[in-house]
Amino acid sequence: MKAFLTILISGLLLAACGGNSAKRTPENDRTTSVSVQNYSYRIKNTYPHSRTAYTQGLEFYDGVLWEGTGQNGESRLQTIDLESGRETVIRELPESEFGEGITLLGDRIYQLTWTDNKAYVYDRKTGNTLRQFRYAGEGWGLANDGQCLYMSDGSANIFKVNPDTFRREATLTVTLRGEPVPMINELEWIDGRIWANVYLSNVVVIIRPDTGVVEGVIDFSGLLREEDLEDDTDVLNGIAYEPQSKRIFVTGKNWPKLFEIELVKQ
């Protein structure tokens, strides 16, 4: 895995839900010839973030920053005041369940669980549980394009999911220069592309949602300084986009800081 991630970093370092997986055509099958843009980053602002928040999902909606956290007995859905880092807990999961990715679509909030095969749907305004869905396999990341959900399971696949039935209606295999990219984790929809954390790395990949092809690779190495690391500080995970201001935020599991960043082309 470490060797693969080294290659990943240095190797050029559908309007509506439904239908089948994208068909292979001469145009979209030339995955090895796709130009991949490498990026580093610049920190624009730094905000406080709770060291006890094991970040699994992060999303801005209507000016409010939402977060889903993990760990058994500590999994919750909450909002965060950006300036102070103060958390307001909306829902707590049962102690036996490990929370994963979240996304907000209209007045509904979706939250995955890791191995319980269960997705919760909450009312955004009240926090009340509206319903639960069952799904096969593991739940990792979750995002939406305004109509459909996109879900990862820790493999190289992203599933296009109907938000009303939670039925998987298409499968994208994430590829970089023709090779599958495993460990796809937290997801965010930004300007028509899916951004995804690659678990156990400092890498975020930018993915075409119609083909699964990686167009960009962002190396966030060094984002959190050595003096901010503690024994429970975990990996980079958490991408949020504020569409009105076009600001991008990233953090990690049990990180004391949340960063507003801009990309720098390499």
N-to-C terminal Cα separation, in Å?
24 Å
Major β-sheet annotation: 8 strands, mixed
Strand content: over 45%
Structural class: mainly beta
Sum up the overall morphology in one term.
globular
Oligomer: single chain
The run of helices and strands is HEEEEEEEEEEEEEEEEEEEEEE
Helix content: under 10%
Number of discrete helical segments: 1
Radius of gyration: 17 Å
Strand line-up in the sheet with most strands: 16-17-18-19-1-22-21-20
Account of the protein in words:
The chain is mainly beta. The chain is 3% helix and 48% strand. The protein is built from 1 helix and 22 strands. It has one helix spanning 2-10, and strands spanning 37-48, 55-61, 64-69, 76-80, 87-92, 99-105, 108-113, 118-123, 129-134, 142-144, 149-152, 157-161, 168-173, 175-176, 179-180, 184-190, 193-198, 203-207, 214-219, 236-242, 247-252, 257-265. An 8-stranded mixed sheet has the order 16-17-18-19-1-22-21-20, with helices on one face. Strands 2-3-4-5 form a 4-stranded antiparallel sheet, with no helix packed on it. Strand 18 and strand 19 form a beta hairpin. The longest helix is centred in the N-terminal third of the chain and has 9 residues, at 2-10. The model is unreliable at 1-15 and 20-29 (pLDDT under 50).
Condensed summary:
This protein has 266 residues and is mainly beta. It has one helix at residues 2-10; strands at residues 37-48, 55-61, 64-69, 76-80, 87-92, 99-105, 108-113, 118-123, 129-134, 142-144, 149-152, 157-161, 168-173, 175-176, 179-180, 184-190, 193-198, 203-207, 214-219, 236-242, 247-252, 257-265.
